[in-house]
Each structure stands twice: as structure tokens, then as C-alpha cells.
Design goal:
The complex is a heterodimer of chains A (about 90) and B (about 280).
Chain A (H helix, E strand, L loop, with lengths): L2 E5 L6 E6 L4 E7 L2 H18 L5 E7 L4 H19 L1
Parallel strand pairs in A: 3-4
Antiparallel strand pairs in A: 1-2, 2-4
Chain B lengths: L3 E6 L3 H4 L9 E5 L9 H14 L6 E5 L8 H8 L6 E4 L4 H17 L7 E6 L2 H5 L1 H5 L6 E4 L1 H8 L11 H13 L3 E4 L8 H14 L3 E4 L5 H8 L3 H19 L5 E3 L2 E3 L1 H16 L4
Parallel strand pairs in B: 1-2, 1-8, 2-3, 3-4, 4-5, 5-6, 6-7, 7-8
Antiparallel strand pairs in B: 9-10
The chains are: A alpha+beta (about 90), B alpha/beta (about 280).
């Protein structure tokens, strides 16, 4: 199974790890999960839809990242996964 | 016109989101030295998404790209040149790289059908850049020169000192080149983030030589830099009196006049106008 990650555990950031997978699975750990867990999941799903990705394992360790940071970290992680595969 | 330009690493969301709260005149999102080689891709992705979501208020947005002699520089330009930024900061500038940068930006603006014309601040941080600084400053889109003393010291094989004698010639060259082309002369950052007295002395020296702005590497440097590079209240009062006296002299058809016993001529009037212009711009009364 191939893996790639991007981001940090600094405040306002998140560390996203992606792995090749036979279906879509999203795991979210967040300091603000109660308030923003659904929002984080929505950003992940929107970004994957934008990239036309239907199966992937996504692990998010969130330290209060805003939508743009989550989206960017996910996009970079996926790009790195594809580069590792190439 | 600028007084303070704050460097912010373009891979740190916490700092980027607060870019406009520190009262710098410009913020420099740094894709170059502040970002590790292994994180260049992450930084440009993050900064691109940041621009899409964030609207920074009343602040010039400058982006320091990677050098055009690296694998990242041209790609940085293609990704981040947009109507959402104002200025590209070009590291290790030479006449050749500044010409290349200007040409690439022009093509990108056309391709993206942009409304805005992006400016360039070349960094004068190599011996060859110092020698070429006048020509670098004369490019159409260049509206400021930044002296980069740390890299220059490496190129010159000298140690940086608190007194800064080793960069006196380079400072003077940057100032002359900038002023001869009517653009900003921006001083090198003061590298201690805790020695505010040293920062003030270094800023006063730079201003006395002709620098009109200074780059900052920590938010706590901005107040000092803004204070030093702003006209003082005394200077503003004096400038107002000169311009009032000039107005009276014009009404009375007087060719020459004096203020406080000193003859006032054209260069002094021009300096007074500049002081008032700065005071209005930065709302100093």
C-alpha cells in the first residue's frame, strides 16, 4: 500500500496522510471535532470530487486548520502519492 | 511608498492568516528561504488556496518566489501571479533574471487575462547585483530594490557586523540606483528579533543614508521600523509651515521667502511636499 502525507501538527494546520485503498475512507482526529468534524469531512469530499477521486484512505490530524489549509494539504498529499507511484 | 515589509513563511497557516494585523505596509509571503526544499510543493499549494479564500485588507501582497535559476522559480510565477497579488520579489536578481522575470510575468498576465499589472522588487544580494543595480532598477515593472545583506556578505566573504561598514557601499548603490529611477530603496532586515534598540539604530542609519523602507523578519520589528521611516510630527509641522509660506509668497508674487530665518528654495519645498504626502498616506497628524 502506497502512502504520502503533507502538513504539520502546528496550530491552524493539519497533517493529512493518504493511502491507496479500494474504497473511500476518511478518518478525522481534530481538536475541534465536535464543532467542525462535519465541515472538515465536507471539505475532504469536495476536494476529492474536484480531483475525481473515488477511492482513497484519508487520515486527517487537525489542529484547527481552516478550509483552504485542509484542501491544500490534501491536494499536495495526493500529488505526492501520484508522484511516488509514477 | 512603503516603510515596512514583513516576511512571512508561505507554509505556515497561523502566520499567513494574521498577515494584515501587524500594520506593516506590505507583507512578503516567502516561498524561498523560509520553505524547506522538500516542502516547496506544499507551500505553493497552500499559498494558492490561501489566496482563493482570504481577502487581506489594505496591505500590499508581495511574494518572494524561488530563484529563476532553480527548478521552482518559473513554476512559482505560473502558479501565483494573479490579480490577488501585487508584487513579485525576485531573489538574487541580475539584469538578465529581472528581464526574464518581467517577460514571464507579462506573458502570464496576458494568458490569465489579468486586470492588474504586477510589480517587481529585485533583491540585490550578490556582488554582481550591486554593480548592476542601476540597470536592474530601470526596468518598467521594478518599483523597489531590496538590499539582501546576508547573502551579499556570503558573496563578499565578509562577516556581518552591527555597524554595517561591510555593506555601506552596497547600501549606497541600492539607494542611488533606486532614487535615480524614482522607486523605493528598501533596507536589509535586522536579523536580531529581540534587540529593538539595535534595530532602531540600524534603521536610523539606513534612513540617514537614503533608504525609505526596511524589511522585517518578525512582527515585533514593525512598530520601530514604521516609526523611524515615518516623518516626525515636528517635520510635518515644519513642512506645513513651509507650504503655507510658499502659498503666501505666491500670492504676494515673492520669488524668494524664508521660514525661521532660513531661505526656502525649490528642493526644500519638494521635500516638504513629500513629507506631507507621506503623513497623509500613513495618517500621521
Amino acid at each position: 500500500m502506497r502512502t504520502a502525507s503533507c502538513g504539520t501538527m502546528e496550530s491552524n494546520d493539519c497533517l493529512i496522510t493518504v493511502k491507496t485503498h479500494n474504497r473511500l475512507e476518511i478518518v478525522i482526529e481534530s481538536i475541534v471535532f465536535e464543532q467542525f468534524g462535519d465541515q472538515i469531512e465536507a471539505v475532504i469530499k469536495q476536494t476529492l470530487a474536484l480531483l475525481n477521486i473515488k477511492s482513497l484512505f484519508v487520515h486527517v490530524k487537525d489542529k484547527g486548520a481552516l478550509d483552504y489549509a485542509i484542501k491544500a494539504r490534501l491536494m499536495t498529499a495526493i500529488q505526492r502519492l501520484e508522484e511516488n507511484h509514477a | 511608498m512603503r516603510r515596512s515589509l514583513l516576511f512571512i513563511p508561505a507554509n505556515t497557516p497561523a502566520m499567513m492568516q494574521n498577515a494584515d494585523v501587524f500594520e506593516a505596509d506590505a507583507v512578503i509571503f516567502d516561498l524561498e528561504d523560509a520553505v524547506q526544499m522538500t516542502e516547496k510543493d506544499a507551500a505553493v499549494d497552500l499559498f494558492t488556496q490561501f489566496l482563493n479564500q482570504f481577502k487581506l485588507n489594505n496591505i500590499e501582497i508581495v511574494v518572494r518566489i524561488n530563484g529563476l535559476d532553480t527548478p521552482f522559480g518559473e513554476s512559482d510565477l505560473n502558479r501565483i501571479v494573479s490579480d490577488q497579488i501585487d508584487t513579485i520579489m525576485l531573489p538574487k536578481a541580475t539584469v538578465q533574471s529581472t528581464a526574464l522575470c518581467e517577460g514571464l510575468i507579462r506573458k502570464i498576465e496576458k494568458r490569465k487575462k489579468m486586470q492588474k499589472q504586477i510589480h517587481i522588487i529585485p533583491i540585490i544580494e550578490r556582488a554582481v547585483s550591486v554593480i548592476e543595480s542601476y540597470e536592474i532598477a530601470s526596468f518598467e515593472r521594478v518599483d523597489g530594490l531590496l538590499l539582501g545583506a546576508e547573502d551579499l556578505a556570503t558573496d563578499l566573504e565578509v562577516e556581518r557586523t552591527e555597524q554595517g561598514f561591510e555593506i555601506l557601499f552596497a547600501r549606497s548603490m541600492v539607494i542611488m540606483a533606486a532614487k535615480a529611477n524614482g522607486i523605493d530603496a528598501i533596507d536589509t532586515p535586522y536579523t536580531s528579533t529581540t534587540n529593538l534598540k539595535g534595530l532602531e539604530m540600524d534603521s536610523v542609519l539606513a534612513k540617514s543614508l537614503g533608504m525609505n523602507a526596511k524589511s522585517c523578519i518578525h512582527p515585533n520589528q514593525i512598530d520601530t521600523v514604521n516609526h523611524v521611516f515615518s516623518p516626525s510630527l515636528d517635520a510635518i509641522r515644519h513642512a506645513k509651515r513651509i507650504l503655507e509660506a510658499e502659498s503666501e509668497a505666491t500670492k504676494s508674487h515673492l520669488g524668494a521667502f524664508s521660514v525661521d530665518g532660513k531661505m526656502i528654495d525649490k528642493p526644500i519645498i519638494e521635500r516638504a511636499r513629500k513629507v506631507i504626502e507621506k503623513a497623509k498616506l500613513w495618517k500621521i497628524e
